[in-house]
Amino acid sequence: MRNTEESRRTQGDLVYFIRPEIEYDGKTYERLAVQTHFVQRGEDYIELINKYVVPLYKEGDILSIGEKIMSMCQDN
Fold this sequence. Notes:
By secondary structure, the protein is α+β, with helices and mostly antiparallel strands. The chain is built from two helices and three strands, in the order E-E-E-H-H. The chain has a three-stranded antiparallel beta sheet with strand order 1-2-3, with no helix packed on it. It is globular, with a radius of gyration of 14 Å. The termini are far apart.
């Protein structure tokens, strides 16, 4: 599913998209796709999290980061 204008939200300078909820093991999970800048090799993933995730984070949230982004941050 692509990000659509209907699902686009902003909070300050952050842009994120509401994805369809999923149900797993009797629980329903809301999903957000957070738009970032083009991540370069060797960037600090903690800084990325502080910039893009912390402002949206609520207690109990689960963060999922793509393997490609983590590999880029590890300069692989």
